[in-house]
Each structure stands twice: as structure tokens, then as C-alpha cells.
From TrEMBL:
It comes from the Eukaryota. It comes from Aureobasidium pullulans EXF-150. GO terms for molecular function: methyltransferase activity; nucleic acid binding. GO terms for cellular component: mitochondrion. InterPro entries: DNA_methylase_N6_adenine_CS (IPR002052), N5-glutamine_MTase (IPR050320), SAM-dependent_MTases_sf (IPR029063). The keyword Methyltransferase applies. This is S-adenosyl-L-methionine-dependent methyltransferase. One of its GO terms (biological process) is methylation. Keywords: Methyltransferase, Transferase.
Length: 374
């Protein structure tokens, strides 16, 4: 990382003696000033300090401590405890991946497309694999129920292997329901979080985390016993996943120090041990054949998988093509609803017959099957 020029540090110090600390993390003055302002507001909020407004001296001391943490590279979201994901403020904590804006943009775009299309049945079932903070099913539910006032039933389930992630997802669900941001009211809508290992095809060892199919079966049994009259036949209409997709070598070469130090590797890199089960597959791609297989098993009509870039998008789109079950496969960039960098709204380049939509880096692979147009 290049050193900051002493002139820039001097300029920052003249503006505020704490600014050089934040500048060490942000590397640019405008971002540093914004972050310092947010941190100052954060320290001034009485509820962050168990109901007390800190006196000037205590507030300054607290602010300095947070700026020192920031200077060491701790993400602002872990310091302040939240991050915006679309319209939702999602709680974050170390050990669980911080939700990214690009993921939110894909989810928002998907919900808009599905709402406009005739693809969604009366009772929609949405499965989010590798749910982390639960941000994806929370935003999808918010978009469909609140934003589009969709009639009919919405049943969403988020799955993760990490107990820490699942307890944060539950906390996010409680918090956003209690403050009225989202309305999840059974039986018209429900959102559950369950623990499973998505890569496990069977349950070999009872002490391990169960496989997805076992976890889904247990979930179905619970739903059926809660409402014995319900018709629980049928699969999961929408399957979304933002899986770990960075290969170990890319992690070592390109991942920033802050991400490496503070965000969980389990969320970023598929476990090394799993690579041997998928010969010939790029180590960063391990989750995708499994996700596509699951899509078939649960009879998904629509899938949306996040990827690292256009190259990975091309490989995943080709895997989906090989399944021969999808009516349309598309690659979406970071901002899928915007016109692309070259002026048009779509571009065919990644693999034969695959449209690339939007502006920015390659971000996700979308596919649907069925007669209606999504
Ligand atoms: C890239 S993060 C995505 C988190 C969240 N969906 C988001 O977009 O911010 C990937 C998540 O996959 C989970 N994970 C990793 N391996 C898994 C596995 N074998 N089965 C289930 N979840 C897994 C991690 O715990 C992590 O929460």
C-alpha cells in the first residue's frame, strides 16, 4: 500500500486531529471526513451509550478509540454495527460477512423483474443459500411485501453453516420486525433461518452439520405439523445464493488486508478440502455445480447466483447451459438495471447466447425456466 504524502496528513491534521487516523484506512480525504462525521454522530447517539449522552471529554475519548480501530483497518460496519442493504439497515458483527451494495442491487433488480413478470405463483417459496446476516431474504421479503404490496403468500428460508451467522440473521429479523421496517406475519408471510452444510450431499457423520436436504425435510415436517391442512407439495420457486467464491490463490493475491484480517474466510473461500470432490473445477467455483444440482432437486423456477467477475460468470453460465433445463440464462453486472458501459442495455459476450446486462463488473448469473417471460 503506498504511503500517504506528509502534505495530505498535515492538511488532515489541520482540519481535525483525529482525521489522519481515519485517513490511514480510507486513503482519501473526502471519505475520511465523511467517516469521521459518521463516527462522531455514532458516539453522540444516546442509545449507543446505554441511554447516556457522553460528556465532551468522554465522547472525545470514545471517538479517538474508534478512530484508532479504524486506522488499524477494522471495517466501519463492524465499528458502527450496521450497514445499509437496499432500504434495510442490517446489523453486522465480526465473524459474519458485511453485506455488499452490489448484492443488494441484484436482489432489488430480481424482485422488480419477478414482480413485473408472470412467473410468481400465488404461494412463493424463496430459498437463500449461504445467508450470512440474512440480508437477502430480508430484502427480498421487504421488496415483495412492503414495496410491491404483493398479494399471496411468501415463504422464505435462509440457510447457513455458521451458527454465528444464523444468530445474527435471527437478530436482524427480530429487529426489523419490531421496528416495523418489515412485515413478516404468518401465515401470509414467513421467514425462517436453518443450519445446514450446502456442500454435503449426505449425512455421513451425525455430529456434523446436517445436509441441506435433511434440513429442508425437517423444516417441511415442522411446517406440516404446525398446519396439517396445508398443501406442502411443490418445490422452491426462487433460489438465491451468494456463496464463497474466491479461490485460495486469488484470496492470497487480491483480497485487501482489511477483508483478510476482519471478515470470515469461511464466507469468502470454499473450504480447501472440498476441492478434491470437484476435479477439473476452478477452486473458486466449487459451490456452483452443487447449487445448480440443488436448483434441479428443489425444482427452482428462478436462480440468482452471485459471482466474482465476468470470467467466473461465464464459467457458471456455461455450467447452467449444460443442465439444459433453463429457458433463459443471463449475466448481470453490479448495477443490472442501468445501461451498460458501452451505451446499450445489453451485450452478448460471455458465452454463446448469454446476455450481459447492466453497468459495472460481472456480478451474478440469473436463469429461469418456464413459459412466462421474466
Ligand atoms: C459470501 S457470504 C454471503 C453472506 C450473505 N448472503 C451476503 O450476501 O452478505 C457466504 C456465506 O456462506 C456460508 N457458508 C460457507 N460454507 C457453507 C456451507 N458449506 N454450507 C452453508 N453455508 C456456508 C458462510 O458462513 C457465509 O455466511
Amino acid at each position: 500500500m503506498p504511503r500517504l504524502h506528509p502534505r495530505v496528513l498535515h492538511q488532515a491534521h489541520k482540519s481535525d486531529t483525529l482525521l489522519p487516523l481515519v485517513l490511514r484506512a480510507t486513503r482519501d480525504l473526502t471519505s475520511a471526513k465523511n467517516e469521521l462525521r459518521w463516527l462522531r454522530d455514532f458516539v453522540a447517539e444516546p442509545q449507543r451509550n446505554t441511554g447516556n449522552i457522553l460528556d465532551n471529554w468522554a465522547a472525545r475519548r470514545k471517538l479517538r478509540q474508534l478512530c484508532v480501530e479504524r486506522a488499524k483497518g477494522k471495517p466501519l460496519q463492524y465499528i458502527m454495527g450496521t450497514e445499509y442493504f437496499g432500504d434495510l439497515e442490517i446489523a453486522c458483527k465480526p465473524g459474519v460477512l458485511i453485506p455488499r451494495q452490489e448484492t443488494a442491487a441484484s436482489v432489488t433488480h430480481l424482485m422488480e423483474r419477478l414482480q413485473k413478470s408472470k412467473l410468481l405463483p400465488e404461494h412463493v417459496k424463496l430459498l437463500d443459500l449461504c445467508t450470512g446476516t440474512g440480508c437477502i431474504p430480508l430484502l427480498a421479503s421487504y421488496e415483495l411485501v412492503q414495496k410491491y404490496s404483493r398479494k399471496g403468500r411468501l415463504e422464505a428460508v435462509g440457510v447457513d453453516i455458521s451458527s454465528r451467522a444464523l444468530s445474527l440473521a435471527e437478530r436482524n429479523l427480530r429487529r426489523l420486525s419490531q421496528d416495523g421496517t418489515i412485515r413478516i406475519e404468518p401465515p401470509s408471510s414467513s421467514l425462517s433461518f436453518i443450519r445446514a452444510d450446502i456442500l454435503a450431499e449426505a449425512d455421513h457423520n451425525p455430529s456434523d452439520c446436517v445436509s441441506l436436504m435433511t434440513a429442508l425435510q425437517l423444516y417441511e415436517e415442522t411446517q406440516q405439523s404446525n398446519d396439517p391442512t396445508a398443501d406442502r407439495k411443490g418445490g422452491w420457486d426462487i433460489l438465491i445464493s451468494n456463496p464463497p467464491y474466491i479461490s485460495p490463490s486469488a484470496f492470497n493475491r487480491t483480497t485487501t488486508r482489511s477483508v483478510k484480517r476482519y471478515e470470515p474466510k469461511l464466507a469468502l473461500v470454499p473450504k480447501d478440502a472440498d476441492a478434491s470432490q470437484y476435479p477439473g473445477i476452478d477452486p473458486g467455483d466449487i459451490f456452483y455445480p452443487r447449487l445448480l444440482e440443488i436448483a434441479k432437486q428443489v425444482d427452482a423456477r428462478v436462480v440468482l447466483f452471485e459471482v466474482a467477475d465476468l470470467e467466473q460468470a461465464g464459467r457458471v453460465a456455461a455450467m447452467a447451459q449444460q443442465q439444459n433445463i433453463w429457458t433463459v440464462i443471463e449475466v448481470w453486472r453490479d448495477n443490472p438495471s442501468q445501461a451498460d458501459d458501452y451505451g446499450g442495455s445489453e451485450q452478448t459476450s460471455v458465452a454463446t447466447g448469454i446476455k450481459v446486462l447492466g453497468r459495472g463488473n460481472g456480478r451474478s448469473v440469473f436463469a429461469y425456466r418456464g413459459g412466462a417471460k421474466a
